[in-house]
From TrEMBL:
Domain named B12-binding: residues: 18-156
Range of residues in the leader sequence: none
Name recorded for this polypeptide: B12-binding domain-containing protein
Domain of life: Bacteria
PROSITE patterns assigned to the protein according to its UniProt record, in alphabetical order: B12_BINDING
Length: 160
């Protein structure tokens, strides 16, 4: 992790750099508005965001995660193939010892036939996701998950 150095009254103060989160779609998904939304949401939580964009090949996702070693990887799907693509991608990522403990979450429209079943969600979690967020859940559950990560900014309590 890089550190920023600031001069302060003749002394030097070092501060840890902000933690990085990678936001991405998967190879079959060409949508981008969801990624822009996630970039803003994750940025509000105090993280630096690397947005890989749409139609990201598995190999690029792997190389970016291995080179950056982010605090979290957020995968988003709008085309309804998130369940299928997500299984493949997380299994590939978890095969790398350096990424076995990386928090990886999947969210969005994950099935072409509507919301995922409990069994499908459990399969994604068993395959290696730390959390799965269906598009009908809204952003509150994701916000709580991300806010619990080291380096996140405090999240205001809703209704307070």
């Amino acid at each position: 992790m890089s550190e920023e150095v600031h001069a302060y009254r003749g002394g030097v103060v070092t501060e840890p750099g902000r933690r990085t989160v990678i936001v991405s779609s998967m190879a079959s998904d060409s949508h981008t508005w969801n990624l822009v939304y996630l970039e803003l949401l994750v940025g509000e939580l105090g993280f630096d965001v690397v947005n890989l964009g749409a139609c990201v090949p598995d190999e690029l996702l792997e190389s970016e995660c291995l080179s950056r070693l982010p605090t979290m990887l957020v995968l988003s799907s709008v085309n309804g193939h998130g369940y299928q693509d997500g299984l493949r991608v997380v299994q590939r990522l978890r095969a790398f010892p350096q990424l076995r403990h990386l928090p990886i979450v999947l969210g969005g429209k994950l099935g072409t036939g509507g919301p995922l079943t409990e069994e499908q969600t459990a399969e994604l979690l068993f395959a290696g996701y730390d959390a799965v967020f269906d598009d009908q859940q809204g952003a509150a559950a994701f916000r709580r998950f991300a806010a619990a990560l080291p380096g996140a900014a405090p999240v205001p309590v809703e209704g307070a």
